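Re-run with default settings, no changes from the original entry. Doing this only to confirm the output is reproducible before filing.
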Amino acid sequence: MAVTAQAQAALPLEPSAWGVGPATARSRRGWPWAAAGLAGSGILVAAIIAATLIVSGGAVSGDPTQARSSSGSSAGQDALARGYSSLVERYRTADRTWKAQADRSDAGSAAAAEALIRPSVQFADVVDQVDHDLVRLAWPASMQVDVNALEAGLATVSGDLRSIGGQSVSSMPQWVSNVVAVAAQSSAESDRLTRHLDGAAETRS
């Protein structure tokens, strides 16, 4: 109704405004239809403008659901990277501690072999806990192959360490070399997974 009033105010409907003589009854009946047509045109224009603003606003602001999804994905990847970094540090600290003990030991003596039992079991306990925590991180499917490889490597390290009880004095040097080799292989596998994570972070940025 407000649009009709504005249209009538903008276009005076009195016959004198058009410079025409007294109008007939039939011509008077035509004016309300003209006013209604103007009102309808005004409503149509307003609807088109409103639709244009809505579309434009959507194009500028973007999809808030998509923005929240991207933010959540980024936060999840950051949490994964922090959790994995903590596991790697725990493993490498235990590895360095064990190697230092093994380097100080004379692998050819019974006393040295016995002295290495406790550090080996402690290292194996850390490896098992790292393996346990590794598979509980929220890994994406694209990294699962590398995760499985690291998990298998950690299991090998733990098994070799716990086999110290079955070693003899003569077999200790070879046993130590084997543990060092499988531990180094697990470190290489962890580095590969770290590079995969770093690549995913660079892609997001």
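The chain has two domains: 2-61, 64-204. The chain has seven helices and no strands.
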